[in-house]
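Teaching note: in complex prediction, the entire set of molecules is handled at once rather than each chain in isolation. The prompt given to students was simply: 'Predict the structure of this complex.' The entities are:
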Amino acid sequence: MKVVVCVKQVPDTAGGVKFNPDGTLDRGAMLTIMNPDDKAGLEAALRLKDQYGAEVTVVTMGLPKAEEVLREAMAMGADKGVLVTDRVLGGADTWATSTTLAGAIRNLEYDLIITGRQAIDGDTAQVGPQISEHLDIPVISYAQDIKIEGDSVVVERQYEDRYHVVKAKMPCLITALSELNEPRYMTPGGIFDAYQKEITVWGRADLKDVDDSNLGLKGSPTKIAKASDKVRKGAGEKVTLDPDESVSYIVDKLKVKHVI
Amino acid sequence: MNLEEYKGVYVFAQQVDNEISSIAFELLGKAKDLAKDLNTDVTAVLIGSGVKGLADQLAEYGADKVIVVDDPELKDYRTEPYAHALASVINKYKPEIMLVGATAIGRDLGPRVSARVATGLTADCTVLEIGDFPLQAVPGQEQLHNQLLMTRPAFGGNTIATIACPYNRPQMATVRAGVMQKIAPIKGAKANVEEFNPGFTPDNKYVEILDIVKAVTNTVDIMDAKILVSGGRGVGSPENFKILEDLAEVLGGTVSCSRAVVDSGWKPKDLQVGQTGKTVRPNVYFAIGISGAIQHVAGMEESDIIVAINKDADAPIFDVADYGVVGDLNKIVPKLTEALKAEIAAAK
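The expected output is the structure of the full assembly:
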């Protein structure tokens, strides 16, 4: 069984966000991490490796620096890493990103493709389902549990107020929720091995069955008209009082506002 | 692609268990505004099995026309038959704008359909308006008018971007639930229904639903609540949420929570407020023991009145609170409940 996992290197938004003087995000000044949902997807794949001896290939698209997440994934136990990097692929929206990744994955053998539900920088949740459409395979989004049954996967697919137990024949694409599991840590042996292993680097020419008009900034149907820091509502009052005074303070405010 | 052929504002009218989701009515409210600016009309696309009878409700909330795709294959949501239905509607009717709710269904259906009809999709929009692209005229570039400008938060709510889809149609967006306003329903409105069935032939992409497990919940949807008493990690334990529940009961409110609480397994996901939970805008939002991570604030900052109680005077929640109280929630909240109980009894 062969599993392809798509991962993204993202700025660690939890660690504080830094901006350039012009208001754009200063990615260089921010720490980067493997996107959490992707890491859960990788862990799910590694469990299939533990259980069924699945071969796990990790694919990322990004700057050459994104090799770091592939090394991390291999230190956790992934077998192979593919870095898709090329200047002509830069500035891609979700459409162009998904055509790129689909073009890379067409070169690989797979029974299952696992992506994270969404990345913490863009929060779109679009790339996984879009890849599945380009590859013409079924998608099961928002997976909270994954099992293999013969040539099929059985997945718990989360919705707001319920989950569906869904069965699909492989090949199939699954998008993983970070609630899916608790990802393992890298091991010292794994880290050592990760740096012995070769990473495959692909550029534009290596993508299969993809038209130039669907790649990079030019191939992105959505265009940014404006980007800015979010303007937040200003702080109101803040008081430090003893508990009884605190209670009177809140009650008074609720009265003034006619809540009670 | 001849962009001129694409006309009208379309809304995916999500239904679950043959009950129209609130997001569908919210989208119709916004679609009406956009259609007015574009001098066009609003069409709802209703997809399901045995759903035709729901069409009049969509008319009541502003749909000029309802396209119904009704087929037994569409009974419960599955990506492929729904994507086939919606993509076929788009290919046949050529809308200029297609709005989908950013729900667990819409965030799966939207990307699959946008990839199939080869257009852009902007995720989780919070503002939609009609305007020019580029916003200001740029020498050497044609400024296009009557474009859908889609605004969304990104980077965990730290930045906000406005996005256009100038050269592809339809212009597609998923829209965050709880943000757009429904219109006051036009009682007795009758839908102008058009039925359409593109044919459904199951293949490998038609997944099989083995079971449907509904969460057992007896609470109000937090998105509909007028008063929310929301707890964070600072509440300390699942048992200690009792003091929040008591406060909520006195005020006729509902308990909600932060992501940390859900991740700790103290409360179910459907009570989570924030970027990866629900966007709420109650009349009063009590943030109790919630530090106010930017992802949480993104889901509640539109509340009319925000009251925060936190022992950490530097907690970021105080940056958005109208009324911030620095102190121990265990001492304040039970007393507050008693005081409000007395006030409310005295007012009767």
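Point out the following to students. The mean pLDDT of chain A is 91. Chain A touches chain B through 79 residues (CB under 8 Å).
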